[in-house]
Write a structure and sequence with these properties.
Rossmann fold, 5-stranded parallel sheet, 38% helix, 21% strand
């Protein structure tokens, strides 16, 4: 069985390392880390992830813009995207969902609970 590909996009090195450590011992998952939204479309077209975890607040290109780019691409729009953000508020959640996110997780992250959800989305539960 080929590995499931998880792409994590967050400008916080700490968060990236936390997500990497969350799945580093699971041989079924290949985790790719990116610290910004630049060149994500090209990356996704060349090495299509099965799931994207996306931070909202990043320099240059924010998570909403990345989400719009993904979902405006005919080849990528069906990739599930989960927003992970410290920004609370129903307006932000609604905007993310309207732009195509399948879920919205508020930081700090409950890694045990959310790893179960991620495994389920990847079909590995």
């Amino acid at each position: 069985m080929p590995k499931k590909k998880l792409l994590v996009i967050d400008d916080s090195e700490t968060n990236l390392l936390l997500f990497e450590s969350m799945f580093e011992n699971d041989p079924r998952i290949e985790v790719t880390l990116r610290d910004n939204g630049k060149a994500i479309i090209e990356y996704c077209l060349n090495d299509r992830p099965d799931l994207i975890l996306l931070d909202l607040m990043m320099p240059e290109i924010n998570g909403y813009q990345v989400l719009e780019m993904i979902h405006s691409s005919q080849k990528l729009k069906d990739i599930p995207v989960i927003i992970i953000s410290a920004i609370e508020g129903q307006e932000n959640i609604n905007e993310a969902m309207e732009k195509g996110a399948i879920d919205y997780i508020i930081k700090p992250i409950d890694f045990e609970e959310n790893s179960k959800m991620i495994l389920k989305i990847l079909g590995l539960n």
